[in-house]
Amino acid sequence: PERRERRRAKKNRSSMETELVYSTPSSLNNGSLKGRLERAMRNNKLLRGKLSRAEDSLRREQKENQNLKSELKKANSQIEELKKSTRVRDKVEDCIFALIVYLRACNSLFLTRIRERQKMYIAELKAQVNMARGLLQLLIPCYRSAGKS
């Protein structure tokens, strides 16, 4: 069992990861326990440094992830605002189009009414002209007869 423990300790030293090596009373006598303890302490210190760096890196990544999440939320809210403004713009465009159609219809109706009024006015004028002609035709013989006398 002691040989296996030594082999494990050698393997672990090379990979900077150490296990606790349980020593038997015979290993206490050979004086290697102090060296093992020193190596274990160095490895422990190195591993604590690696752990600290890994924790720092993890905190940075978590902070970056938080920032990315907040940016994503902002982008999503901007997209929603754009969708709303697009919908509003589309509604405004629809209203403008409806207003244009309404104005064209009103203009057409207005022009139709003007034409009808013009036709009525022309008809009235024609009637007045015809009445004036009729009166002239009645008055001309009277005027001629008055001029002869």
List keywords for this structure.
149 residues; mainly alpha; 3 helices
Characterise this structure:
- This protein is mostly helical and 149 residues long.
- It has one domain.
- It has 3 helices and no strands.
- The radius of gyration is 55 Å and the shape is rod-shaped.
- It starts with a helix and ends with a helix.
In short:
This protein is mostly helical.
Strand content: under 5%
Estimate the helix proportion, in percent: over 70%
Quaternary state of this entry equals single chain
Q: Averaged pLDDT, please?
A: 81
Tally of contiguous helical segments: 3
Tally of individual domains = 1
Through-space gap between termini = 168 Å
Principal-axis shape equals rod-shaped
Structural class by helix and strand composition: mainly alpha
Fold blueprint:
Elements: H1 2-14, H2 25-29, H3 32-148
